[in-house]
Amino acid sequence: MEIITEDGLLGPLLLARGAIDRSASLRGDAEWLERAWADGATRVVVVDDGQALVRRQGDGVALVLLPTADAPKGERYLLGIDAEGISYFAVAASLTDAEPSGPQGRIVAPLTLSALREGEAVAAGLRQVGSLLGDLDAGLLVHAVALEVWHATHEFCPRCGSRTEVRAGGHVRVCPEDGSQHFPRVDPAVIMLVHDDEDRCLLARGPQWPEGRLSVLAGFVEPGESLEHAVAREVAEEVGVRVANPRYLGSQPWPFPRSLMLGFFARAVSTDLVLDQEEIAEARWFSRAELWAALDSGEVRLPPEVSIARRLIETWYGEPLTGDW
User: What is the pTM for the complete model shown?
Assistant: First the structure.
């Protein structure tokens, strides 16, 4: 059995990793940004609709990072500087423009090393490749994807409708008409593993998911609401269960499109299930033995390793599990 990490979770949160200084103090320095872009050591990740080019690299997968001279035209976002002083940018552009021969295809299912040929560039997103990237590349891609999706959906000023301009290394948009500043949006969402006094956990399935695809409960935090109240409200609304003592365990970004997932354990003080049919198609209590048997038979499949949901389930269970979606 693995040891639970200091933050209370069994194993790392794979989209919460990073290995660079985000260098927020340099974002407003236009001269520095131009010098950094002109530096031959600077590297660029091209992001296109949430995907980037990756290649197999030994026993892992790495982002295809370009020198600025080879980067396609597009909006630039400063991602930060690593310990060796190398600067990293993201550029929002077509991946075809980033690979002269064109990427070998877009990966839509979780990626495995065996599916990649050495040297072949493919387009993949965080769901497909997040668990295979190293700390540096995982942090770069999460940051790049989050900025790309925000810029793509916030081109116009919400006050006057004018087209806004990108500033501060891609971390601010400014309206040229009224001078208002607009910052990247993050939507906090609680995600919770509910367990009862019989040491069972509650797993559920949304109506849009196929049978057997189960996960923990989750929902967005409402305005004026604490995280703990959001945990209790969402569980009561979705499955009719009352919970107590929510315990925070960790968080990770989930830029699909702009969430921050805040993970909790919560103890059930009632166990009868009353499902919100619009949100939940089925929900079941599992003992450890029952969950293992359901996974072994293929009756149940769990969220992929890249998700905080998987970490919450494995932490409750006490060791890693198999049976990805």
Answer: 0.91
